[in-house]
Amino acid sequence: MTDRPTVICLMQSSLDGGLHPSKFTASPDGGPKEWSSLYEALHDELNGDAWLVGRTTMAEMAKGTAHPPATPVTVERPHHFANRDAKPYAIAVDTRGELHFGGDNVGGDHAVVLLGNGVRDEHLAELAGDGVSYIVADAKHLDLADALVTLRRELGIERLMLEGGAQIVGSFLAAGLVDELHVIVAPALDAREDMEGFVVHRSDGLAGKVRLSFAACKPLDHGAVLLSYEVLASSSSPHMAED
Q1: 236 backbone dihedrals φ, ψ, rounded to 5°
Q2: Using CA atoms, how far apart are residues 96 and 118, in angstroms rounded to an integer?
Q3: Where in the numbering of this chain does the Bacterial bifunctional deaminase-reductase C-terminal domain appear (predicted)?
Q4: Which domains are present in the chain?
Q5: Cβ contacts of 108 within 8 Å, gap of 6 or more
Q6: Which phi and psi (to 5°) does residue 238 adopt?
Q7: Strands 50-54 and 159-162: what pairing?
Q8: Rounded to the nearest 5°, which phi and psi values hold at 126?
Q9: pTM of the prediction?
Q10: pLDDT tens-digit profile of 194-242?
Q11: What is the mean pLDDT of residues 34-45?
């Protein structure tokens, strides 16, 4: 039995590799909303204890503004858990401490933030004051494998949904920390000049680090298909998060 959660990556892509359904051309049924409904249905079906995204993706959902405490406070390091029985959890990788929540949840799911050790105490106090849980890394950058072990040990997370964005998915794949990869391919196009695919690894790509073994292909509504793969990781070395 592994000491980390099973990591299940669920992503959605246009035919040309776009990541954001709001930018896709319409479905054959005439509207763009079908793409998000397909994703949400698969998210529920895969039944994770938690879902994890990078800073950029979480910033689209966490709409708070900075509100540090007015007076100095003592904060907990390396972690603070405001709720240990709140499945599912909404987890964000935010190594520099740039996210603000204004509450303890995202869409009703308890918020947990994974941070680098350079984050100021004032930011930790803000998170704790909002009822947000957090884990502070031993170093400036977050060791993903260590973070997963802590999430399983402290919060009982057994199945973690990795749901973007592209850089954080690339980091997990490069570290050999993804067990399953599920991609909804929509019959749509993105075609923006600045578009990037659903996986990005900035340093040297993923060649030699990841192999995929086909598991299944399932037709979905609105002309989409679900491609499922077992991830056979070639790399087992620690890898730092890109958020």
Answers
A1: -125, 10
A2: 7
A3: 5-189
A4: 6-36+49-183+197-227 (3.40.430.10)
A5: none
A6: -60, 150
A7: parallel
A8: -60, -45
A9: 0.90
A10: 776 777 776 667 877 888 999 999 999 999 999 999 998 655 555 556 5
A11: 90
